[in-house]
Sequence to fold (400 residues):
Amino acid sequence: MSPVDGSTAAVESREAAYLVPTYSRTAFHPRTGRGARLFDADGKRYWDLLAGIAVNALGYSHPRITRILRSEARGLLHVSNLFYHPCQGLLAERLIEASGLSHAFFCNSGTEANEAAIKFARLANPGRPEIIALEESFHGRTMGALSVTGHEEYRVPFGPLLPGVTFVPPNDHTALERTVSEDTAAIIVEPILGEGGVIPLSDDYLRAARRLADRSGAVLIFDEIQCGLGRTGTLFAFQGVGVTPDIVTLAKPLGGGLPLGAVIVGPKLDGSIKPGHHGTTFGGNVLACRLGLAVLEEIDSSHLLERVKGLGAWLETQLRRIQRTVPAIIDIRGRGLMWGIELNRDAKAVALELLSRGYVVGTARQNVLRLLPPYIVPKSALAAFLTVLVDVLTGEKEES
Fold:
């Protein structure tokens, strides 16, 4: 086989010729990484403050992850869900003990987890036609998950979608109270709306959702795909607000970089889900589950939840201090190591300037910078980023 041309120009040309153009890519070519650092095709170093959109919570080349990849490569990678393997039950046990819920189902992604959650809610409430979701929410790109995604431009090209979905504004108690009824099968919310611009739901709002679900018999679903598994400083975001849902969906950091999603269900779902009601070919495979166990073990053994809390509190203080002196910053929102910086200008242009200066960040909507760094990011890297951010937003030029 002849050598493959891996130059940046060749990579971009090949993708333009052969890939379905579903992504508008940034001209950035990361090739290797270590810790919270990325290195591009030219060897330039970057601090990664996006973590593959909240996936790489342990950064890159983590020794616990690489050790397992080497070990498991000699064993079975896949056996199907027709048979047993030890890791799926072990990972389910860890998640159930940590969450206080009842049972787990494993799939491949966040959108698949939300599809399963919708189906499970229907099983628990047969014949109920309605699902309540939030405006500005994001739950995935497949048809059911898309149906409860509260951003119209994502949904409109693909209608008609799942019927019976009603959207209400986030943190609007009155609208939620007015909408939930005995016809409601489920209420689905992100404790912190990620793609919607990093919008935390208030504790009072989440308590109201719990109360209304109990009163109506609806299933309360928390989508913690982006904000869960330590991102906010508790293993599950719901643990930080004292509101326990009936279903939690997880993905992103769970597989240590490989595709793995999970649906964790509580007692309200007991007895309603039977063999044949749902399934997946690859979900919960040996390697992904072994990596999931490693992620949870590392979060626990390295006390990363305490680190996320402490570092997140420091970062919030610094961001709010900067906000007082930089007019370009309209608002600061978030918790732990999940932050949105709302700007008075286009966020993508700012993100590209930050990339040119060695910092990878994300965006949400048109004017929000999104920070989702690895849990192991050094405090010094965040401090340096804040200095550069101020320079970019105030028009300071980088010294040559």
Notes: The longest strand covers residues 329-335. The longest helix spans residues 304-323. The chain has two domains: 8-61+303-394, 76-301.
